[in-house]
Amino acid sequence: MLVIAFFYTSDISTWHLIIGSAVLLTMYIGNKLGVRSIFFYAILGIGGVWSTFLLSGVHATIASVLAAFTIPADVKIKEQLFIDKIKKYLDRFKSIDPMEHKPTLTYEQLHVIERIQDASVAATPPLQRLEHAMHPLVTFIIIPIFALANAGVSLDIDPDNLFSTNVAVGVASGLLLGKLLGVVGFTMLLIKLKIAKFPEGMNTTNLIGAGLLAGIGFTMSLFVTSLAFTNEVYIVQAKIGIFVASIIAGIAGYIVLNKQSKNQFLTN
After folding, report:
1. Overall number of domains in the chain
2. In which band, very low, low, confident or very high, does the pLDDT at 228 lie, cut at 50, 70 and 90?
3. Residues 64 and 96 in one domain
4. Greatest Cα-to-Cα distance within the chain, rounded to the nearest angstrom
5. How far apart are CA 84 and CA 125, in angstroms?
């Protein structure tokens, strides 16, 4: 996202950027004041931050990242308190005499259910609720539409043109080698500096497998391709590089992790 913002940005409109930053500050203050309404952050995030950043010339993807940082990621009530509240409300619900021969609930039952709903909302971080609510839309609509719109590659390709530049090889190398070196290298550096440590069950081989799987590029790789190139030949070369690297990375990552999984099973 930062690469897109800094390297694929057109002329910047300072005025729109100031307005967007002011809206972003409002969202941050709302977070600190305890505002937990998803609609508050959605309206300001989309109508304020995203739109003004788009008009400012800074790529709007960075606005989404910045806006997400302002949405509360903590809970209002802790897990044990939530469990205690739910138990109390359920006991109360059981003790209420239902309306005989009627499908509707009593006023007291409705009141208890509302309390359960309020407790459930308070026990769930707003950021996580928003992510959960948007997941079906993003998974089944947004990403498929993006894929259909951007992934098409014409098979009528002249082999001489395919490797007339280093675009395909460069993109494939960036995904296969760059992701592997980035994931494994930075993780091992943090471990060596004792800033972090492997979680239980994790080892260097698993890390290498994860680094290989990170080389599977699709949405963001295609997005950057559309921003970086205007020449149709370069775009096709980049997409071929993305697809080839993704296939190799997926197979290699599977082999490494599958072999490691079998070794751990035999050891145990």
Report:
1. 3
2. confident
3. no
4. 81
5. 18
Task: For residue 144, give the 3-state DSSP assignment.
Answer: helix
Between CA 208 and CA 204 the distance in angstroms is 6
For 175, phi then psi, to 5°, come to -75, -45
Q: Which two tokens stand for residue 151?
A: 């992934």
d(CA 71, CA 130): 9
Tell me, yes or no, whether 128 lies in a domain. no
Q: How far is CA 257 from CA 82, 84, 185, 249, 265, in A?
A: 38, 41, 18, 12, 12
Q: Is the pLDDT of residue 172 over 90?
A: yes
Predicted confidence band of residue 10 (pLDDT cuts 50, 70, 90): low
19 and 44 Cβ atoms separated by less than 8 Å: no
Examine residue 259 and state whether it is found in any structural domain, yes or no.
yes
Task: List pLDDT tens digits, range 119-140.
Answer: 999 999 999 998 998 899 988 8
Q: 141 with 212: CB under 8 angstroms? A: no
Same domain, 238 and 164: yes
